[in-house]
Automatic annotation (TrEMBL):
Protein name: S1-C subfamily serine protease
Chain ranges of the PDZ domain: 289-382
InterPro entries documented for this protein: Chloro_Bact_Ser_Proteases, PDZ, PDZ_sf, Peptidase_S1_PA, Peptidase_S1_PA_chymotrypsin, Peptidase_S1C
Assigned keywords, A-Z: Hydrolase, Protease
One GO term of the biological process aspect: proteolysis
Molecular function as annotated in GO: serine-type endopeptidase activity
Length: 403
Protein backbone atom coordinates (compact mmCIF):
# COMPACT_ATOMS: atom_id res chain seq x y z
CA UNK A 1 0.00 0.00 0.00
CA UNK A 2 2.85 2.39 0.81
CA UNK A 3 4.30 1.95 -2.70
CA UNK A 4 1.17 3.13 -4.48
CA UNK A 5 1.93 6.89 -4.27
CA UNK A 6 5.47 6.29 -5.48
CA UNK A 7 4.29 4.18 -8.41
CA UNK A 8 1.66 6.77 -9.30
CA UNK A 9 4.27 9.54 -9.42
CA UNK A 10 6.59 7.45 -11.57
CA UNK A 11 3.73 6.67 -13.96
CA UNK A 12 2.88 10.38 -14.36
CA UNK A 13 6.52 11.35 -14.96
CA UNK A 14 7.01 8.59 -17.57
CA UNK A 15 3.80 9.55 -19.32
CA UNK A 16 4.81 13.22 -19.48
CA UNK A 17 8.24 12.28 -20.85
CA UNK A 18 6.72 10.06 -23.57
CA UNK A 19 4.14 12.68 -24.51
CA UNK A 20 6.63 15.54 -24.85
CA UNK A 21 9.44 13.62 -26.58
CA UNK A 22 7.58 11.17 -28.83
CA UNK A 23 4.22 12.66 -29.72
CA UNK A 24 4.93 16.44 -29.80
CA UNK A 25 7.25 18.09 -32.33
CA UNK A 26 10.27 19.97 -30.99
CA UNK A 27 9.21 23.40 -29.67
CA UNK A 28 5.51 22.58 -29.59
CA UNK A 29 5.33 22.91 -25.80
CA UNK A 30 7.16 26.23 -25.92
CA UNK A 31 4.71 27.34 -28.59
CA UNK A 32 1.79 26.47 -26.35
CA UNK A 33 3.30 28.42 -23.48
CA UNK A 34 4.00 31.36 -25.79
CA UNK A 35 0.42 31.51 -26.99
CA UNK A 36 -0.84 31.33 -23.44
CA UNK A 37 0.88 34.66 -22.69
CA UNK A 38 -0.66 38.00 -23.67
CA UNK A 39 0.16 38.99 -27.24
CA UNK A 40 2.72 41.77 -27.78
CA UNK A 41 1.18 45.17 -28.29
CA UNK A 42 2.96 45.73 -31.60
CA UNK A 43 2.21 46.71 -35.19
CA UNK A 44 4.21 46.32 -38.39
CA UNK A 45 5.09 49.34 -40.50
CA UNK A 46 6.47 49.09 -44.07
CA UNK A 47 8.87 51.68 -45.41
CA UNK A 48 9.46 52.07 -49.14
CA UNK A 49 11.90 54.19 -51.09
CA UNK A 50 14.70 54.19 -53.65
CA UNK A 51 16.70 51.82 -51.47
CA UNK A 52 13.87 49.30 -51.45
CA UNK A 53 11.22 48.26 -48.93
CA UNK A 54 11.60 46.92 -45.43
CA UNK A 55 9.35 46.48 -42.43
CA UNK A 56 9.66 47.65 -38.84
CA UNK A 57 7.98 46.31 -35.72
CA UNK A 58 6.62 49.17 -33.70
CA UNK A 59 4.82 49.47 -30.37
CA UNK A 60 1.18 50.31 -30.89
CA UNK A 61 1.21 52.53 -27.76
CA UNK A 62 3.75 53.80 -25.27
CA UNK A 63 3.97 51.41 -22.30
CA UNK A 64 2.99 52.61 -18.86
CA UNK A 65 5.81 53.48 -16.44
CA UNK A 66 6.42 50.97 -13.70
CA UNK A 67 6.44 51.99 -10.02
CA UNK A 68 10.21 52.52 -9.91
CA UNK A 69 10.20 54.70 -13.01
CA UNK A 70 7.30 56.72 -11.66
CA UNK A 71 9.25 57.42 -8.48
CA UNK A 72 12.32 58.52 -10.45
CA UNK A 73 10.22 60.88 -12.54
CA UNK A 74 8.43 62.27 -9.49
CA UNK A 75 11.74 63.04 -7.72
CA UNK A 76 13.11 64.75 -10.83
CA UNK A 77 10.00 66.87 -11.42
CA UNK A 78 9.86 67.94 -7.79
CA UNK A 79 13.53 68.84 -7.38
CA UNK A 80 14.59 70.17 -10.78
CA UNK A 81 13.05 73.68 -10.46
CA UNK A 82 15.15 74.22 -7.30
CA UNK A 83 18.49 73.26 -8.86
CA UNK A 84 20.66 75.92 -10.50
CA UNK A 85 23.75 76.01 -12.68
CA UNK A 86 26.52 78.29 -11.36
CA UNK A 87 29.22 79.78 -13.58
CA UNK A 88 32.14 81.48 -11.86
CA UNK A 89 34.66 83.65 -13.68
CA UNK A 90 38.10 84.33 -12.26
CA UNK A 91 40.97 86.24 -13.81
CA UNK A 92 44.37 84.61 -14.25
CA UNK A 93 47.44 86.02 -15.96
CA UNK A 94 49.35 84.60 -18.88
CA UNK A 95 53.13 84.52 -19.41
CA UNK A 96 53.11 88.20 -20.38
CA UNK A 97 50.93 89.17 -17.38
CA UNK A 98 47.91 89.67 -19.56
CA UNK A 99 44.55 89.00 -17.88
CA UNK A 100 42.95 85.73 -18.97
CA UNK A 101 39.37 84.99 -17.84
CA UNK A 102 38.89 81.45 -16.56
CA UNK A 103 35.48 79.91 -16.06
CA UNK A 104 34.35 77.13 -13.77
CA UNK A 105 30.97 75.48 -13.38
CA UNK A 106 29.08 73.96 -10.53
CA UNK A 107 25.62 73.53 -9.12
CA UNK A 108 23.53 74.83 -6.25
CA UNK A 109 19.97 74.85 -4.98
CA UNK A 110 17.46 77.54 -4.04
CA UNK A 111 16.74 78.03 -0.34
CA UNK A 112 13.94 80.60 -0.47
CA UNK A 113 11.88 82.80 -2.76
CA UNK A 114 14.13 85.78 -1.95
CA UNK A 115 16.91 84.23 -4.04
CA UNK A 116 19.27 82.67 -1.48
CA UNK A 117 21.22 79.78 -2.99
CA UNK A 118 23.51 77.27 -1.27
CA UNK A 119 26.53 75.81 -3.02
CA UNK A 120 30.11 74.69 -2.34
CA UNK A 121 32.74 77.27 -1.49
CA UNK A 122 35.13 75.77 -4.05
CA UNK A 123 32.58 76.44 -6.81
CA UNK A 124 32.82 80.22 -6.37
CA UNK A 125 36.18 80.59 -4.61
CA UNK A 126 38.23 83.58 -5.91
CA UNK A 127 35.59 84.38 -8.53
CA UNK A 128 35.28 87.97 -9.79
CA UNK A 129 31.88 87.26 -11.33
CA UNK A 130 29.24 84.65 -10.47
CA UNK A 131 26.21 83.91 -12.66
CA UNK A 132 23.27 81.64 -11.96
CA UNK A 133 21.16 79.89 -14.59
CA UNK A 134 17.78 78.61 -13.42
CA UNK A 135 16.07 75.49 -14.72
CA UNK A 136 13.95 77.73 -17.00
CA UNK A 137 17.21 78.97 -18.62
CA UNK A 138 16.95 82.53 -17.24
CA UNK A 139 20.32 83.92 -16.10
CA UNK A 140 21.06 86.23 -13.18
CA UNK A 141 24.16 87.79 -11.69
CA UNK A 142 24.78 86.54 -8.17
CA UNK A 143 26.34 88.16 -5.14
CA UNK A 144 28.45 86.10 -2.73
CA UNK A 145 27.07 86.82 0.75
CA UNK A 146 29.36 84.68 2.88
CA UNK A 147 31.53 81.57 2.73
CA UNK A 148 32.72 78.87 5.08
CA UNK A 149 35.89 77.24 3.80
CA UNK A 150 36.03 74.86 6.76
CA UNK A 151 32.78 73.22 5.67
CA UNK A 152 33.19 74.02 1.94
CA UNK A 153 29.90 75.94 1.84
CA UNK A 154 28.92 79.27 0.34
CA UNK A 155 25.74 81.35 0.38
CA UNK A 156 25.00 83.44 -2.71
CA UNK A 157 21.98 85.51 -3.77
CA UNK A 158 20.23 86.56 -6.95
CA UNK A 159 17.84 89.51 -7.19
CA UNK A 160 14.48 90.07 -8.90
CA UNK A 161 13.97 86.45 -9.94
CA UNK A 162 10.21 85.69 -9.94
CA UNK A 163 8.54 82.41 -9.06
CA UNK A 164 11.53 80.76 -7.44
CA UNK A 165 10.93 77.24 -6.13
CA UNK A 166 12.80 76.54 -2.85
CA UNK A 167 14.18 73.07 -2.23
CA UNK A 168 12.74 71.05 0.64
CA UNK A 169 15.39 70.24 3.25
CA UNK A 170 15.18 66.95 5.12
CA UNK A 171 17.46 65.82 7.95
CA UNK A 172 20.64 63.78 7.68
CA UNK A 173 20.29 61.98 11.01
CA UNK A 174 19.26 58.36 10.66
CA UNK A 175 20.48 57.90 7.09
CA UNK A 176 21.10 54.23 6.32
CA UNK A 177 23.51 52.42 4.04
CA UNK A 178 21.47 51.00 1.16
CA UNK A 179 19.02 53.89 1.13
CA UNK A 180 18.23 55.13 -2.38
CA UNK A 181 19.49 58.60 -3.29
CA UNK A 182 19.43 60.90 -6.30
CA UNK A 183 21.87 63.59 -7.45
CA UNK A 184 20.78 66.45 -9.69
CA UNK A 185 23.25 68.94 -11.09
CA UNK A 186 25.22 70.07 -14.10
CA UNK A 187 28.05 67.56 -14.71
CA UNK A 188 30.38 68.84 -17.43
CA UNK A 189 27.92 71.69 -17.98
CA UNK A 190 25.07 69.33 -18.92
CA UNK A 191 22.30 71.08 -17.00
CA UNK A 192 19.44 69.23 -15.36
CA UNK A 193 21.16 65.84 -15.18
CA UNK A 194 19.88 63.31 -12.64
CA UNK A 195 21.69 60.16 -11.53
CA UNK A 196 20.59 57.53 -9.04
CA UNK A 197 22.32 55.24 -6.57
CA UNK A 198 22.39 54.28 -2.93
CA UNK A 199 24.13 55.45 0.21
CA UNK A 200 27.30 53.33 0.21
CA UNK A 201 28.66 54.45 3.59
CA UNK A 202 28.63 57.22 6.20
CA UNK A 203 32.22 58.18 7.00
CA UNK A 204 34.50 61.09 7.85
CA UNK A 205 36.69 62.31 5.00
CA UNK A 206 38.98 65.19 4.07
CA UNK A 207 37.68 67.82 1.66
CA UNK A 208 39.51 69.39 -1.26
CA UNK A 209 41.32 71.82 1.04
CA UNK A 210 42.11 69.17 3.63
CA UNK A 211 39.15 70.24 5.76
CA UNK A 212 37.44 67.45 7.72
CA UNK A 213 33.88 66.54 6.68
CA UNK A 214 32.22 64.60 9.47
CA UNK A 215 29.55 62.01 8.61
CA UNK A 216 30.00 62.57 4.88
CA UNK A 217 27.47 60.67 2.77
CA UNK A 218 29.22 58.30 0.38
CA UNK A 219 27.20 57.30 -2.68
CA UNK A 220 27.60 55.35 -5.90
CA UNK A 221 25.27 57.74 -7.75
CA UNK A 222 27.41 59.07 -10.59
CA UNK A 223 28.79 62.54 -9.81
CA UNK A 224 31.25 64.42 -11.99
CA UNK A 225 32.81 67.90 -12.22
CA UNK A 226 29.91 70.32 -12.31
CA UNK A 227 27.83 68.37 -9.78
CA UNK A 228 29.58 70.14 -6.89
CA UNK A 229 27.17 72.17 -4.79
CA UNK A 230 24.09 70.38 -6.10
CA UNK A 231 21.60 68.52 -3.92
CA UNK A 232 21.70 64.87 -2.94
CA UNK A 233 18.07 63.83 -2.52
CA UNK A 234 16.13 61.08 -0.81
CA UNK A 235 13.33 59.14 -2.52
CA UNK A 236 10.86 61.93 -1.68
CA UNK A 237 12.93 64.57 -3.48
CA UNK A 238 14.11 66.19 -0.23
CA UNK A 239 17.69 67.41 0.20
CA UNK A 240 19.78 65.26 2.54
CA UNK A 241 23.23 66.44 1.43
CA UNK A 242 25.31 68.74 -0.78
CA UNK A 243 27.39 66.95 -3.40
CA UNK A 244 30.96 68.07 -2.86
CA UNK A 245 33.64 65.58 -3.83
CA UNK A 246 34.42 62.62 -6.07
CA UNK A 247 37.04 59.97 -5.38
CA UNK A 248 40.01 59.91 -7.73
CA UNK A 249 39.90 57.19 -10.33
CA UNK A 250 42.66 54.66 -9.50
CA UNK A 251 43.47 54.41 -13.22
CA UNK A 252 44.38 58.07 -13.36
CA UNK A 253 41.06 59.62 -14.36
CA UNK A 254 40.82 61.94 -11.39
CA UNK A 255 38.44 64.31 -13.21
CA UNK A 256 35.64 61.83 -13.74
CA UNK A 257 33.42 59.64 -11.63
CA UNK A 258 35.04 56.56 -10.15
CA UNK A 259 31.74 55.36 -8.72
CA UNK A 260 32.39 56.98 -5.34
CA UNK A 261 31.07 60.43 -4.52
CA UNK A 262 30.61 62.29 -1.25
CA UNK A 263 28.09 64.81 0.04
CA UNK A 264 28.12 67.14 3.03
CA UNK A 265 25.22 66.17 5.33
CA UNK A 266 22.41 68.72 5.23
CA UNK A 267 22.38 69.01 9.04
CA UNK A 268 25.90 70.45 8.86
CA UNK A 269 24.68 72.98 6.30
CA UNK A 270 21.70 73.90 8.50
CA UNK A 271 24.04 74.65 11.41
CA UNK A 272 26.22 76.78 9.13
CA UNK A 273 23.18 78.66 7.80
CA UNK A 274 22.02 79.27 11.35
CA UNK A 275 25.38 80.88 12.15
CA UNK A 276 25.23 82.89 8.93
CA UNK A 277 21.84 84.26 9.96
CA UNK A 278 22.82 85.05 13.57
CA UNK A 279 26.37 86.30 13.24
CA UNK A 280 27.09 86.87 9.55
CA UNK A 281 29.82 84.21 9.69
CA UNK A 282 30.29 80.69 10.99
CA UNK A 283 31.16 80.32 14.66
CA UNK A 284 32.59 76.83 14.76
CA UNK A 285 32.55 75.51 18.32
CA UNK A 286 35.95 74.40 19.57
CA UNK A 287 37.53 72.87 22.68
CA UNK A 288 40.94 74.18 21.55
CA UNK A 289 42.86 70.99 22.21
CA UNK A 290 45.25 68.79 20.25
CA UNK A 291 44.25 65.16 20.75
CA UNK A 292 45.36 61.55 20.34
CA UNK A 293 42.76 58.79 19.75
CA UNK A 294 43.13 55.91 22.20
CA UNK A 295 42.49 52.22 21.52
CA UNK A 296 42.98 49.11 23.66
CA UNK A 297 46.61 48.54 22.61
CA UNK A 298 47.79 52.10 23.32
CA UNK A 299 45.78 52.22 26.55
CA UNK A 300 47.48 49.04 27.76
CA UNK A 301 50.96 50.26 26.79
CA UNK A 302 50.73 53.54 28.70
CA UNK A 303 48.57 52.30 31.56
CA UNK A 304 45.38 54.28 30.98
CA UNK A 305 42.30 53.52 33.10
CA UNK A 306 40.06 53.08 29.99
CA UNK A 307 40.55 51.24 26.68
CA UNK A 308 39.03 54.05 24.62
CA UNK A 309 38.75 57.81 24.52
CA UNK A 310 40.53 60.96 23.33
CA UNK A 311 43.77 61.84 25.11
CA UNK A 312 44.53 65.55 25.38
CA UNK A 313 48.09 66.08 24.18
CA UNK A 314 48.06 69.86 24.27
CA UNK A 315 45.77 72.62 25.52
CA UNK A 316 45.87 75.71 23.32
CA UNK A 317 46.67 78.95 25.21
CA UNK A 318 43.64 81.06 26.02
CA UNK A 319 41.22 78.47 24.65
CA UNK A 320 38.10 76.83 26.03
CA UNK A 321 39.90 73.83 27.54
CA UNK A 322 42.46 75.97 29.34
CA UNK A 323 39.74 78.18 30.80
CA UNK A 324 37.94 75.06 32.06
CA UNK A 325 41.09 73.73 33.73
CA UNK A 326 41.72 70.75 31.44
CA UNK A 327 45.27 69.39 31.40
CA UNK A 328 47.50 68.56 28.43
CA UNK A 329 50.33 66.04 28.34
CA UNK A 330 53.63 66.49 30.17
CA UNK A 331 55.64 63.42 29.06
CA UNK A 332 57.11 63.24 25.57
CA UNK A 333 56.90 59.86 23.83
CA UNK A 334 56.90 58.48 20.30
CA UNK A 335 54.19 56.73 18.28
CA UNK A 336 56.22 55.35 15.42
CA UNK A 337 58.02 58.42 14.06
CA UNK A 338 55.47 60.83 15.50
CA UNK A 339 56.13 62.60 18.80
CA UNK A 340 53.19 62.59 21.23
CA UNK A 341 52.62 64.04 24.68
CA UNK A 342 51.30 61.71 27.38
CA UNK A 343 49.93 62.38 30.84
CA UNK A 344 47.02 64.62 29.86
CA UNK A 345 43.33 64.23 30.61
CA UNK A 346 41.51 61.39 28.84
CA UNK A 347 38.05 62.34 27.49
CA UNK A 348 35.65 59.37 27.60
CA UNK A 349 32.27 61.12 27.54
CA UNK A 350 30.55 64.32 26.42
CA UNK A 351 26.97 65.42 27.00
CA UNK A 352 25.99 61.92 28.11
CA UNK A 353 27.53 60.21 25.06
CA UNK A 354 30.45 57.82 25.10
CA UNK A 355 33.48 59.21 23.25
CA UNK A 356 35.61 56.55 21.56
CA UNK A 357 36.81 58.35 18.41
CA UNK A 358 37.47 61.93 17.27
CA UNK A 359 34.31 61.64 15.16
CA UNK A 360 32.24 61.02 18.31
CA UNK A 361 33.59 64.23 19.81
CA UNK A 362 33.04 66.16 16.56
CA UNK A 363 29.43 64.97 16.44
CA UNK A 364 28.82 66.41 19.91
CA UNK A 365 30.49 69.71 19.01
CA UNK A 366 28.54 70.00 15.74
CA UNK A 367 25.32 69.87 17.75
CA UNK A 368 26.38 73.06 19.56
CA UNK A 369 27.45 76.61 18.84
CA UNK A 370 30.35 78.66 20.13
CA UNK A 371 29.38 79.95 23.58
CA UNK A 372 27.43 76.81 24.52
CA UNK A 373 28.49 74.85 27.60
CA UNK A 374 28.99 71.09 27.45
CA UNK A 375 29.83 68.51 30.10
CA UNK A 376 32.89 66.30 29.64
CA UNK A 377 33.68 63.09 31.51
CA UNK A 378 37.44 62.66 31.84
CA UNK A 379 40.02 60.53 33.59
CA UNK A 380 42.78 62.49 35.31
CA UNK A 381 45.18 59.78 36.27
CA UNK A 382 42.84 57.07 37.55
CA UNK A 383 40.24 59.48 38.92
CA UNK A 384 37.08 60.02 36.88
CA UNK A 385 35.67 63.56 37.06
CA UNK A 386 33.13 65.74 35.24
CA UNK A 387 34.11 69.13 33.82
CA UNK A 388 31.97 71.91 32.35
CA UNK A 389 33.48 73.60 29.28
CA UNK A 390 32.20 76.70 27.49
CA UNK A 391 32.99 76.25 23.80
CA UNK A 392 34.94 78.95 22.02
CA UNK A 393 34.82 80.21 18.46
CA UNK A 394 37.52 78.46 16.43
CA UNK A 395 38.32 81.78 14.72
CA UNK A 396 39.24 83.37 18.05
CA UNK A 397 41.84 80.79 19.07
CA UNK A 398 45.47 80.27 18.27
CA UNK A 399 46.29 78.25 15.20
CA UNK A 400 46.86 74.52 15.61
CA UNK A 401 45.34 71.15 14.96
CA UNK A 402 42.48 71.30 17.39
CA UNK A 403 38.90 70.28 18.02
Amino acid sequence: MKLRPVLLVLLIVCGFYYLTTRMMPVGALAGLLHHSLPLDNTTTATLSGPAGSFSLTEAAAAPAFDAEEQQNIAVYKRALPSVVNITSTAVAFDFFYGPVPQQGQGSGFILNKEGLILTNNHVIDNAQRVEVTLSDKHQYKAKVLTTDKAHDLALIKIENAPNLVPATLAGSQGLTVGQRVYAIGNPFGLSGTMTRGIISAIRSIRGQEGNPIEDAIQTDAAVNPGNSGGPLLNSRGEVIGITTLIASNPNGGADQSAGIGFAIPIDTAKAVLDDFAKYGHVRRPSLDIVTLPIGPDIADQIGLPAEYGILIERVLPGGAAERAGLHGGTQKAWEGNTPVMLGGDLIVGADGQTITTPQDLSNVLNAHHAGDTISLVIFRGHQQISVKVTLSDAKETASGQSV
